[in-house]
Design a protein that fits this description.
Strand content: 15-25%
CATH architecture of one domain: 2-Layer Sandwich
Structural class: alpha+beta
Largest sheet: 5 strands, mixed
Shape: globular
Strand order of the largest sheet: 6-5-2-7-8
Radius of gyration: 21 Å
CATH class of one domain: Alpha Beta
Number of strands: 11
CATH topology of one domain: Nucleotidyltransferase, domain 5
Distance between the termini: 14 Å
Number of helices: 11
Order of helices and strands: EHHHHHEHEEEEHEHEHHHEEE
Length: 338
């Protein structure tokens, strides 16, 4: 069994580049990931407020806590590390190998006023687009997701608001060799209708299920569209409402990417924990229940006083194991989960 610290030691290329000579960071990369997940689960959209909260309530559990500028810089320089850890957790979930994928995109709004559009550092990267689900225009990128029916993110990408959803989906599949699976089924909405798109998917061994459009011949498997489409919509709603991606507050490109990855890591960790605990799969409200359970755990840890926290994530080739325990001032150990 290997801890997450060992994983980061075994893969030093995952960590952000640091000078060979200099002072090593006092906050380890594993602790940084833990703080990032706690911030998302506890609902802090402001890093300054979360750091104040951490200094007031989480100091017994972390040997060192940075100030807001240091925490801000570490998060924005750790994008690659976030992606590797998300992928490791996702691969450890049994549902990662599901034969059905769900694909969709959702806006990541970055501003509404004209002054913001003209003066923001995101100008030129964030663009205007239209969200049919909410019947409104928005300014910002789109988050494209491919998930399993359990809500587990398999692939994700941030693209321009006007970038074709079908091209982005093909790019996500082409860039990840693990996603080249003959016999795979991809389910999408009517926005993924295009002959060349279906042809390229078929060449990769992937079958597309989408709504019948206009006078087309009735397509197969239409009865499965509504229940499964509700799942991908619930994943988007979980990210944007329960994990507050709708109020991310980022003002730069690295900031937007960091806020998105932070929420995806929290979501992936919640689903991994649910599957590792042996909870039943295929629930439409799975992601909400998983996140509620993890948020309750975070609240339980937050309320504990005069205690030291130990959190260890172990895994082997087939499974993960999470252990969280508290050591009180008398030296007694109380296991929370594990």
């Amino acid at each position: 069994m290997t801890t997450i610290d060992d994983l980061l030691i075994e893969h030093p290329q995952w960590a952000p580049e640091r000078p060979v000579v200099g002072i090593s960071p006092k906050l380890t990369d594993a602790e940084l990931l833990t703080l990032a997940v706690l911030q998302a689960l506890l609902g802090f959209t402001s890093e300054a407020r979360f750091i104040r909260h951490a200094h007031a309530h989480l100091r017994p559990w972390f040997p060192y806590l940075p100030d807001r500028p240091g925490y801000n810089k570490r998060l924005r320089n750790s994008g690659e590390m976030f992606q590797h850890v998300i992928a490791s957790l996702a691969r450890a979930c049994p549902s990662f190998n599901d034969d059905l994928w769900l694909v969709d995109s959702t806006p990541v709004e970055c501003g509404r006023s004209r002054e913001t559009v003209k003066r923001s550092d995101l100008a030129g990267w964030a663009t205007y687009g239209y969200c049919a689900s909410h019947t409104r225009f928005f300014w910002g990128p789109r988050l494209h997701l491919i998930t399993t029916p359990s809500g587990l993110p398999v692939a994700y990408a941030l693209a321009g608001a006007k970038t074709d959803e079908r091209d982005t989906a093909l790019d996500m599949i082409a860039l990840n060799p693990e996603l080249h699976r003959p016999g795979q089924i991809l389910m999408g909405d009517k926005g993924y209708r295009r002959v060349s798109f279906e042809t390229e998917l078929a060449n990769a061994g992937i079958t597309l299920i989408r709504p019948t459009f206009g006078k087309e011949t009735q397509r197969p498997h239409q009865r499965f569209l509504r229940p499964f489409r509700q799942i991908i919509e619930s994943v988007n709603q979980t990210l944007k409402a329960q994990l507050d991606l709708e109020r991310h507050g980022a003002r730069t490109r690295p900031g937007v990417c960091a806020r998105v990855l932070q929420r995806l890591l929290a979501l992936t960790a919640a689903i991994w924990h649910n599957e590792a605990a042996g909870e039943p799969e295929g629930r439409h409200d799975a992601t909400s229940r998983e996140l509620s359970a993890m948020a309750a755990l975070a609240g339980q840890l937050e309320r504990a006083k005069d205690c030291a926290l130990a959190c260890q994530i172990e895994f082997d080739d087939n499974s993960f194991a999470l252990a969280v325990w508290l050591v009180d001032e008398n030296g007694d150990v109380r296991s929370l989960i594990g």
